C-alpha cells in the first residue's frame, strides 16, 4: 500500500542550485532526501556522516578518494529510497539562491515497513541552512503538496537605496518631479493601496498599518531627499471612452489623453547633445522621441557599447532613506499589480496569446520601511494561487526601475497589453517563499493529518529571522549586491529606454549591444549583435 509523508521545512537558498534535485548539482531536495534515506533503517551509522559530504555536490568530491567510497554507499542508499517513491511534490519551486521560510515536500513511498524519522533526528544530519519543522505521516489519501495548495505567499526584500536616481551618464529620460498623493489617486482610482481585496486580512500581520502618518513619523523627519513643498497639479481629464469618435483637437485629443498618464515635467525642452562635439557613449544613447512610438518601427537598428559608470559610495548607499513620495508610488504600483492580468511579459518565453498567462494576484502589499544593520529595507509580500518562474522577481525589477527612473506608472498597466517588454529578473537572494496554505484540505483531513505550521510557529519565525532575513541583511550590507545588479542594468540602459521613458509608453526596441559586453552580467543582455 505504501505511506504518504509530508515534510514541512525551511531553508536559506544561498549556495544551492534550487529546491528540485538536479543530477550533479547541490539542491536542497537532494540533501533532505539523503538525510531521510540515512534514517530509514537501511543505512548504517557510518553512512550518516556522508550526508554532509553529499551536500557539497558529487562533482566536487570526484577527486577525493577518501570520501568517494562512503559517498557512493550513501548515494546508493538514496537511490534505493528514490526507487520506492511513487510521487513527489513540492508546494512551490524555488530557483538558485532563493529561500523558503515555510516549504512543503510530499512523498508517496511504496514500502510499508519504512521507518519515518523525527524532525530532530533529521536536523541532526542537516546543515544549519536547512531545518525540518514537522513530519506528517501518514497524510490523507490523495494529498499533494502542489495540487492541494490553495494559495502561496512570497516575500521580496528591497534595500531602499535601489530607489536612488541613477547616474545621469546612463542616459535615462529622467525628470525630477513631484507627484502628489491626490494625483496618484486620480490617475488610478481603482488601485487603492489601502484596500485589501483578499478577504483574509493584511499579509503583514506584524506590520499592520497603524496609519501612514504614525508608521513613517518615527525617525523619518529628516529623510534624505524629502520634498518639503510639493506642488499639487490638478489632474487632467481622461479621454471620454464613451465618445463615438476620437477627438483630434489639442484640448481634447490623444495628446491630452497621453499627457494625463505621464508625470509632470518641465516645459523647457533640454537641448540634445551634439554627437560631433563629444565622444561620450552616454550622449550616443537616443533620447525618447516626442513622436508616436510606432514611428520607430522604420528606424534602423542602433548599436552601442556598454557605458562605463563609476561606482557609488558605499556609505551613501547604506545611509539612503526613501522619501514619503517614493513610498506612496511603490504602494500605488503594487496596487496596480493586484487582480487578474496577462502576465506574458513576466513569464520567460511566454506569448501574449497564451491563456495560461492570465493569472490572478489575490493580494499584494508593501510594508513600512525598516532599519536593519544601519540600512533601510522595504518588504513586499504577494499572495496568489500560483506564480510562474521568475514572475515575482520581474514584478519587483520593474517596480524598482520605474521608481528610480521616475517613469510614469502607466508603464505597469501597459505591460499587461500585447506589447513585448524584456523585463530583467531582480536578484534571487532577496526572494523568499513565505507560506503555502491548505485550508480546504485541513478541513477534510482533520487535526491529525492537518498541514500547517501553527504548532511550530515560534521555531519557524526564529529560523526565518536568523537564518534568512538577518543573513540577507548582513550579506547585502557587506557586498551591496543589489547595487551591482543596478549598475549592470544602467551600463546597458539603452536596452530599456523604449519602455523606461518620460511618457510611460512602450515603444519598439531597436537598440543592441555592439560586440563584447565588457563585463556586464550576461543574464541581463538579450539584444546582442
TrEMBL record:
Record's protein name: tRNA pseudouridine synthase 1
Gene3D superfamilies, A to Z: Pseudouridine synthase I, catalytic domain, C-terminal subdomain (3.30.70.660), Pseudouridine synthase I, catalytic domain, N-terminal subdomain (3.30.70.580)
Gene Ontology biological process: mRNA pseudouridine synthesis; tRNA pseudouridine synthesis
Domain of life of the source: Eukaryota
Start-end of Low complexity biased regions: 218-232
Species, as recorded: Physocladia obscura
GO MF term list: pseudouridine synthase activity; RNA binding
Keywords, ordered alphabetically: Isomerase
Keyword Cell division: no
Region (Disordered): 185-256
Recorded GO CC terms: nucleus
Amino acid at each position: 500500500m505504501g505511506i504518504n509523508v509530508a515534510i514541512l521545512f525551511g531553508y536559506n537558498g544561498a549556495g544551492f542550485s534550487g529546491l528540485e534535485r538536479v543530477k550533479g548539482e547541490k539542491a536542497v531536495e537532494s540533501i533532505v532526501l539523503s538525510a531521510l534515506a540515512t534514517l530509514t533503517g537501511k543505512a548504517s551509522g557510518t553512512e550518516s556522516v556522508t550526508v554532509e559530504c553529499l551536500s557539497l555536490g558529487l562533482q566536487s568530491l570526484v577527486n577525493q578518494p577518501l570520501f568517494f567510497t562512503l559517498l557512493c554507499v550513501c548515494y546508493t542508499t538514496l537511490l534505493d529510497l528514490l526507487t520506492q517513491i511513487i510521487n513527489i511534490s513540492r508546494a512551490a519551486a524555488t530557483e538558485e539562491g532563493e529561500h523558503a521560510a515555510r516549504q512543503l515536500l510530499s512523498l508517496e513511498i511504496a514500502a510499508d515497513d519504512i521507518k519515518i524519522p523525527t524532525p530532530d533526528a533529521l536536523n541532526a544530519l542537516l546543515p544549519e541552512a536547512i531545518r525540518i519543522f514537522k513530519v506528517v505521516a501518514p497524510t490523507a489519501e490523495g494529498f499533494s503538496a502542489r495540487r492541494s495548495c490553495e494559495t502561496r505567499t512570497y516575500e521580496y526584500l528591497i534595500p531602499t537605496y535601489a530607489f536612488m536616481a541613477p547616474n545621469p551618464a546612463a542616459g535615462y529620460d529622467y525628470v525630477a518631479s513631484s507627484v502628489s498623493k491626490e494625483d496618484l489617486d486620480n490617475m488610478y482610482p481603482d488601485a487603492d493601496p489601502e484596500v485589501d481585496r483578499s478577504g483574509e486580512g493584511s499579509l503583514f500581520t506584524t506590520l499592520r498599518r497603524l496609519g501612514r502618518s504614525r508608521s513613517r513619523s518615527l525617525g523619518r523627519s529628516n529623510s534624505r531627499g524629502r520634498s518639503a513643498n510639493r506642488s499639487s497639479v490638478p489632474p487632467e481629464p481622461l479621454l471620454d471612452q464613451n465618445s463615438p469618435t476620437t477627438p483630434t483637437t489639442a484640448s481634447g485629443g490623444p495628446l491630452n489623453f497621453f499627457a494625463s498618464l505621464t508625470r509632470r515635467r518641465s516645459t523647457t525642452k533640454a537641448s540634445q547633445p551634439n554627437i560631433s562635439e563629444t565622444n561620450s557613449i552616454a550622449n550616443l544613447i537616443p533620447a525618447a522621441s516626442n513622436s508616436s512610438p510606432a514611428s520607430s518601427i522604420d528606424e534602423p537598428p542602433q548599436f552601442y557599447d556598454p557605458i562605463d559608470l563609476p561606482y557609488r559610495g558605499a556609505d551613501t548607499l547604506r545611509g539612503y532613506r526613501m522619501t514619503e513620495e517614493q513610498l506612496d508610488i511603490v504602494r500605488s504600483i503594487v496596487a496596480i499589480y493586484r487582480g487578474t492580468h496577462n502576465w506574458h511579459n513576466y513569464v520567460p518565453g511566454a506569448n501574449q496569446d497564451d491563456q495560461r498567462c492570465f493569472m490572478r494576484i489575490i493580494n499584494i502589499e508593501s510594508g513600512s520601511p525598516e532599519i536593519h544593520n544601519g540600512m533601510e529595507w522595504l518588504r513586499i509580500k504577494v499572495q496568489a494561487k500560483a506564480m510562474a518562474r521568475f514572475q515575482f522577481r520581474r514584478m519587483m525589477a520593474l517596480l524598482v526601475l520605474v521608481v528610480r527612473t521616475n517613469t510614469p506608472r502607466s508603464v505597469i498597466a501597459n505591460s499587461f497589453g500585447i506589447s513585448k517588454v524584456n523585463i530583467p529578473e531582480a536578484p534571487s537572494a532577496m526572494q523568499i517563499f513565505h507560506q503555502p496554505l491548505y485550508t480546504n484540505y485541513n478541513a477534510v483531513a482533520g487535526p491529525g493529518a492537518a498541514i500547517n505550521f501553527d504548532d511550530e510557529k515560534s521555531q519557524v519565525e526564529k529560523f526565518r529571522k536568523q537564518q534568512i532575513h538577518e543573513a540577507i541583511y548582513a550579506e547585502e550590507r557587506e557586498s551591496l549586491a543589489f547595487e551591482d545588479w543596478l549598475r549592470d542594468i544602467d551600463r546597458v540602459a539603452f536596452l530599456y529606454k523604449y519602455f523606461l521613458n518620460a511618457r510611460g509608453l512602450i515603444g519598439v526596441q531597436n537598440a543592441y549591444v555592439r560586440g563584447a559586453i565588457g563585463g556586464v552580467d550576461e543574464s541581463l543582455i538579450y539584444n546582442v549583435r
